[in-house]
Amino acid sequence: MDGLKLKGFRSNRTVEEQVMRGKGERSPFDTDLFRKNNIISLDPSYIFNTNENNPISLKDLEVLAPRVLDADRMLKMEEGDILDNGVPMTGWQNLPEEITPAHLKEIRQATDELSRAIDAFVSIGIGGSYLGIEATFQALTHSWFNQLSRERRGGAPEIYFLGQNMDPDYFRDT
Q1: Is-contact 137 159, C-beta < 8 A?
Q2: Contact 164/126 with Cβ under 8 angstroms?
Q3: Confidence at 52, pLDDT banded by 50, 70, 90
Q4: 163 Cβ contact list (under 8 Å, min separation 6)
Q5: pLDDT for position 1
Q6: Which of 38, 60, 86, 148 has minimal Cβ neighbours within 10 Å of its Cβ?
Q7: ∠ at Cα 96 (61, 163), nearest 5°?
């Protein structure tokens, strides 16, 4: 056997892209090249009505779909259990469209300044305050990001997440 050969996968380019971002060479998100290089396709149809003991059936989905659509409608109408002291917590729905180029420039400048000034960034939190940041980080960076040199990390500091473990020794050691 010659080994496992994967077809349809391109090489891992996260390090090259991290270095490019560190040099200020950013890939524009609204280009055909970016879209081509970041296509994700998902076909979940194989999980329904299989011959095996499967906990998900197409009937389950058909029963759940109206409830999901109703929850979506309520969210868009700012109804339901989404208020914090009377304020609807739905701003995240419009956030990408509401960020101005000036605000993005300000964020990038702060990021550049902080990246040069710190050696390590630690995110502490639980639930969404922790998981969203970590999921984004893992999706956009090399699997062993912190073990790469600072140059190979694109000038970024090491980044650690402390939301999965409440052990005081783990916190201290990190």
Answers
A1: yes
A2: no
A3: low
A4: 123, 124, 125, 126, 127, 129, 130, 131, 134
A5: 39
A6: 86
A7: 70
